[in-house]
Amino acid sequence: MEVQMSDIYSEGDIYSKANNVTIYMTPTTPLTYDNNKWVYHQMPDVSQFKEDMKRQQTLHADHGVLTHLKFEFPENVKPNVDMMQLLRAEGFQVGNLELYMIEAADLRQLTGPSLEIEPVTIKNMADYMHVYEPLSIQFGADYIKESAQALLTNLKKDTRARQPYIAYENAQPVGIMNVIETARTVELDGFAVAEVARGRGVGSRMQAFVGEIARERPVILVADAEDTAKEMYMKQGYTFISFQYSALKELTVSVPY
C-alpha cells in the first residue's frame, strides 16, 4: 500500500485550502505549533516566502496566535540553498520529519512486560497527564495547561479521530500514545514512555498492542530525522517512506516585517 505525509493526521482546523498551500488556524490552541501552520503543496521561491511570512504573522496575530510562525514544505523536496540561507537569516529552525511504515503483523511480534493498556477517559485523564507533563514541561506551564484542555475537549466528544491510550504496569502509568484509525492505515502518534520505565520493552509491548488494533492495516508514524527514536523504529522493522522539511520561528515579541 502506498502511503504519504498527507496520510498523517492533523488536529488543526483548516482555515483555507488552495492548490499551492493549506492553512491551518486553530485559535483554541495557539501554543500548539502544529495546529497553526501553512503546508505548501508547491515549493515557494524566496520572494513568495518572504511575502508569506508577513501574511502568516498578520493572520496569526488576528487570531491570537502570537508565539510562532510555522511552514511545512512539499514532501520529498529539500529547500534549496537560497531558501536555507533565508530561513537561517530570519531565525527559523529547520526541521525534517520522516515517515515510516510497518505491517501490523510485524508489530504483533514485538514483546515486552505485561501491561494493561486502556483508552484514556475523563476518569483516568490524570494518569495520562502524569506521564505527559514531565516529558513536555520544557515547553512551559501554559503549554501543559493548553494540552490538558485540548485533551479534555477531545475526550468529551462522542466520536474522535485521535484516541489516546495509557499503559499501566502494576497499576502504575508508564506509557502514553495516540492511535488514529482510518480505513487504510493506523497511525501511532504522541508515543512516550515514562523515564523510569524505559529500557525494559514497555514501548515494544505498546506497539504490539497497536498491531493488534490495526489487524491487516499498515501502521504509520513520523519521527524527527535527528531523533535517536527513529533508529529504534528501524530496528523494529519500520520502513522509511518519505521526508518533509519544515521551518519554525518562535516569537518572543512582535516582529515587524
UniProtKB/TrEMBL annotation:
Write down the Gene3D superfamilies for this protein, in alphabetical order.
3.40.630.30
Q: Which residues form the N-acetyltransferase domain?
A: 115-257
Could you list this entry's UniProt keywords, alphabetically sorted. Transferase
Entry annotated with the keyword Transferase: yes
Q: Enumerate the CDD domains for this protein.
A: NAT_SF (cd04301)
Specify the domain of life of the species encoding this protein: Bacteria
Q: What is this protein called?
A: GNAT family N-acetyltransferase
